[in-house]
Every structure is written in structure tokens, then in C-alpha cells.
Design brief:
The chain is an alpha/beta fold and 459 residues long. It has 16 helices and 17 strands. It has a 6-stranded mixed sheet with strand order 3-4-2-1-5-6. Strands 14-13-15-16-12-17 form a 6-stranded parallel sheet, with helices on both faces. Strands 7-9-10-11-8 form a 5-stranded mixed sheet, with helices on both faces. Keywords: ATP-binding, Nucleotide-binding.
């Protein structure tokens, strides 16, 4: 007769069973890998797996110069390193303390067949089958599919699978995203008088607590008002005056702040966020042209998001013809600046000469990846369509005497699998605020036209 287990052994077994039930296994789909090739490393002590279908899909993305091609290649190298010492169909311990395991899942043998249920053998349904099989094989684990594809999450939940978005890099409270400027009422008149008489006021006299570095203010007393900015080096509030840049004059306080940051020699990284028509790109380009003598080149770039997610090859013509429609909004802003001066004037000819001599370059973002960013002003338009990793890659290439400007609208995202919380512009604003090299301005008032304002406000 088998003797009963001791209390100590029973307690140990209970702890192991409880620990197993609290363990999690996450299955990553292709969209997560293309968003962050290091995603496998970000699930702590929990196990992580990918269906073999994901490897097959990544094979289609490994060629090219876009960021998704880079992510695919990096992840394939990661898998290759693991496979040198381990069989990928077995659980492989991930290197590092407090890390779980990794494996590649087969997608056959699931008790529930997603391909039959949805009557389609597409890759998404193979990924669902692989996750369903893992859930069946690991009943003591909480198995969850991680995907940035909302529709795939809905399909998973319809099959009684837990499904969630990839949270690493997401901004949790985007409604309170740093704005870069504030309106302060009931400021003592002595502070505003000092700003006008002396141009600056010690921060201790003006505000009870120091604000974020390079923060901007509209200050109002009962009698007057002033625009100001916090200089973190001098620890003073400085008066901000309206100034023009190549014929462009700011039309409101926020535009004044943006142009001040763009022209400030100590501010090397700038983000400008706002809806369409607020003047983001125009101000960035005007500020860059005003400083053209201080830099060798001005690059104005934007990511290409093909119409309906169709590849550029869908469009007719050569490479320049294909990218032309995507770059046209940037040329429109340059033409607007040129139109501030008479035809054949010295200033208009100087801008044209910069284009002819490639000192002012308007190009897709993919065309300048890998280049040295020394002694240039680099403007990235539509930055909300970039991932956090793309933003980091761009900034990390900055050399000496480089100023980088990101403009965009975090509520106008055209890239699949990005949203207001996970896009690179929101990530950058949240992570870099309160740094002496950085300034951010949120533009709220549309200045394009009354008709454009009507669309933004009412439609």
C-alpha cells in the first residue's frame, strides 16, 4: 500500500500547481514581429511562441529597405541563433534572468479548426489553429494570442481564445499626452512687467514649481499678457516675441512657440503635433530655410503609406513617378514659401538654387535610411505613421550640428497596426519630455482657411 504524502510534499505540490496556473504562454503573430523584432524578450518570465506560419510570412518581408524588412531580418537572425543549439519545436530557455521559454508551433492537430470555421485557409487562420493547439496542450497555462491586428483579435475571442494587443511601447493615457505649452491666468503683474522690461524673470519669482525644460506659456495678469518660455540652462522665464522666417509670420501663440523652438540653437529635437491645417509642416520648413546658412543640407522626408495598403509597384511609371504623389504636399509647402516673394527675386531664386544644388531635398523616408545625418536639418513629416523603433533609429543617426524635427497628427494614422497609443510620435513626446535638448508644441488652431476649420470642428 502506497504511503500518504507528507504535509511538506503536499504543500510543495500545491505551490507548483498554483504557480503553473499563474504561468502564461503568449503566441505572437507576424504583425507583432514587424512592429518590434525584439518582442520575444518583453514578456518577462512567461513563455513565448510563434506559429511556423509566422516564419513563412516573415520570409516575404525579408527583402527591402523599409523598417518592416529590417524587423523581419533581425528576427530571422534571432531564430537562426537559437536553432544552432536547439530544436525549435521544443521549448528553449531564453537567455537572461527571469526569462521564460520559446518555441515554434505547428498549426495542425487543433481540436477546433479555424480554417473550417471561417471557410478559408489564410495565414491568420493557421495562426489561430496553432494557438488553439497550444491551449489544448497546456491546460494549466493561460494561453493568449498577441497581435496588432484588431480583426484577428476578434476572431480569436470568437473561438474562446484570449487575445490582446502588444503593449510594449504603448502610451497608456494619450489624452494627457504632454502638450508643451500652457495658459496660466492670474500671474502677478510684476512678473509680466519684468519680462517686458528685462526680457527674463527668474523662475522662482514667476512660478511655484519649475516646469518641464523648454516649456512654453501664455501668461496673463489682470492688466496684460505675455508669451514666455522656460530656459532650463539659465533657470529663467524668457519673453517670446513673434518673429518671421522666410516671409512666414506666425498667426497665433502656438505657432509663435513652434517657430521659437525651431530657431533656437540649443534645441536639437523638436516635435510639432496638430490637426490638418495648423501649419506644422509649413513652420518646420520655414524655420529650416531661415537657418540654411548654418547647415549643409535640409532634408524633408515622409513615410510612404500606399493607398489601401497597396505596394508602390501598383502605380504606373518609374520610381520618381511612383513616389511623386506622396511627396506633393511637401512641395506645396515649399511653393507657398516661394510665393511670399516676387518672382525672380533674390530670396525666391535662392530657394530654387538650394533645390537645384540638392541642399534642399524632399524625399521618401526610406530613401535616406542609413545615411549620415551630420550638419543637416532633418524634417520628418507624418511622423505618426512611424513605429517607436523607426523614431529611435532616425534619432540615433544624428551627428554633429544636426537638428531633427518631427511633425504629425497622432489622431490621423494611416498605417495598419498603429494607433494613437502605439505610434512613434506619441511615444517620442511621452518619453523625451523634460529634456534640455527637446521641445514640443501642440498646435490646436487651424490657420489654413475657415473652410478647413469647419471640416476639423464639425465633420
Amino acid at each position: 500500500m502506497k504511503s500518504p504524502a507528507s504535509p511538506r510534499k503536499r504543500t510543495s505540490a500545491l505551490k507548483e500547481k498554483t504557480a503553473a496556473k499563474t504561468k502564461k504562454a503568449f503566441v505572437l503573430d507576424t504583425s507583432v514581429i514587424l512592429y518590434d523584432h525584439s518582442a520575444v524578450e518583453h514578456f518577462g518570465e512567461h513563455d513565448v511562441a510563434i506559429p511556423i506560419t509566422v516564419l513563412e510570412e516573415l520570409d516575404n518581408f525579408k527583402k527591402g529597405n523599409d523598417i518592416k524588412n529590417f524587423e523581419a531580418r533581425e528576427f530571422i537572425r534571432f531564430i537562426d541563433d537559437l536553432s544552432n543549439e536547439h530544436m525549435l519545436q521544443s521549448w528553449i530557455p531564453l537567455q537572461g534572468s527571469n526569462k521564460g521559454r520559446f518555441k515554434v508551433l505547428m498549426n495542425h492537430g487543433s481540436p477546433v479548426d479555424a480554417e473550417k470555421i471561417f471557410n478559408d485557409n489564410k495565414a491568420d487562420h493557421k495562426i489561430l489553429n496553432a494557438t488553439l493547439l497550444l491551449q489544448h496542450e497546456m491546460p494549466d497555462y493561460k494561453v493568449a494570442l498577441v497581435t496588432k491586428d484588431i480583426n484577428l483579435r476578434l476572431k480569436a475571442r470568437a473561438l474562446n481564445l484570449a487575445a490582446e494587443d502588444y503593449e510594449t511601447g504603448k502610451i497608456q493615457n494619450v489624452t494627457n499626452l504632454y502638450r508643451g505649452n500652457d495658459l496660466l491666468e492670474n500671474i502677478p503683474q510684476a512678473v509680466i512687467s519684468k519680462l517686458y522690461d528685462e526680457g527674463a524673470c527668474p523662475i522662482e519669482e514667476a512660478l511655484p514649481n519649475p516646469p518641464s525644460d523648454n516649456h512654453y506659456f501664455i501668461l496673463r495678469s489682470n492688466k496684460s499678457s505675455a508669451l514666455a518660455y522656460y530656459n532650463p540652462q539659465e533657470r529663467v522665464l524668457e519673453r517670446v516675441d513673434k518673429q518671421m522666417a522666410v516671409g512666414i509670420k506666425p498667426r497665433n501663440a502656438e505657432q509663435t512657440f513652434a517657430l521659437h523652438a525651431l530657431l533656437h540653437p540649443d534645441i536639437k529635437l523638436i516635435t510639432i503635433q496638430g490637426v490638418a491645417g495648423t501649419g506644422k509642416t509649413l513652420l518646420a520648413l520655414a524655420g529650416a530655410l531661415e537657418q540654411r546658412e548654418q547647415y549643409n543640407q535640409i532634408y524633408l522626408a515622409r513615410p510612404i503609406v500606399p493607398l489601401s495598403n497597396r505596394d508602390l509597384g501598383f502605380l504606373p511609371g518609374d520610381a520618381n513617378s511612383k513616389i511623386g504623389p506622396y511627396m506633393e504636399p511637401l512641395w506645396d509647402n515649399l511653393k507657398f514659401i516661394q510665393n511670399q516673394f516676387p518672382d525672380h527675386s533674390k530670396e525666391a531664386n535662392r530657394i530654387k538654387q538650394m533645390v537645384d544644388e540638392d541642399r534642399l531635398v524632399i524625399t521618401p523616408l526610406a530613401y535616406i535610411r542609413g545615411r549620415s545625418l551630420s550638419n543637416i536639418i532633418f524634417i520628418v513629416d507624418e511622423a505618426q505613421n512611424l513605429t517607436p523603433h523607426e523614431i529611435k533609429t532616425i534619432i540615433s543617426r544624428a551627428g554633429e550640428n544636426t537638428k531633427i524635427i518631427f511633425t504629425g497628427d497622432i489622431y490621423q494614422i494611416d498605417t495598419p497596426y498603429l494607433d494613437t497609443q502605439s505610434n512613434g510620435l506619441s511615444y517620442l513626446i511621452d518619453k523625451v519630455k523634460n529634456h534640455p535638448l527637446y521641445a514640443h508644441i501642440t498646435l490646436q488652431r487651424g490657420e489654413r482657411s475657415e473652410l478647413a476649420n469647419l471640416a476639423n470642428d464639425l465633420l
